[in-house]
Design a protein that fits this description.
about 120 residues, about 5% strand
């Protein structure tokens, strides 16, 4: 089986070292990956079509990203739909505070004003 997800110990496009942090950053930096994880926050279980509609992702990209997340052990397919694994929830716990930081940052830069 060919690996599609960047995994620790394997070279990635960003780093030949295979360092775990580089593999994680490569995985999270893939198009639509963070949006997918965002939609699965708060212990949500979503079926493929519901996840596709919630995230606004094409079916082919969603299928690829889900396969990568499943291979990386952060998403699983349950009877109720796709959900974060325990490892995925621990990653979520680290990522969600970034939203608050980003809101503060945007406010400090005055970039949240929707008027032109």
């Amino acid at each position: 089986m060919t690996r599609s997800a960047p995994l620790p110990g394997q070279p990635t496009p960003a780093s030949q070292s295979g360092r775990p942090v580089m593999a994680l950053l490569d995985l999270l930096g893939r198009r639509w990956q963070l949006r997918l994880l965002w939609e699965l926050r708060d212990d949500r279980h979503l079926r493929f079509r519901a996840l596709q509609e919630a995230a606004g992702i094409s079916p082919s990209v969603l299928n690829t990203r889900l396969a990568e997340c499943i291979e990386a052990g952060i998403v699983e397919l349950t009877d109720e739909g796709y959900a974060l694994t325990a490892r995925g929830r621990s990653l979520q716990d680290l990522l969600l505070p970034l939203n608050g930081w980003a809101e503060d940052w945007a406010s400090a830069l005055n970039t949240c004003d929707p008027t032109p």
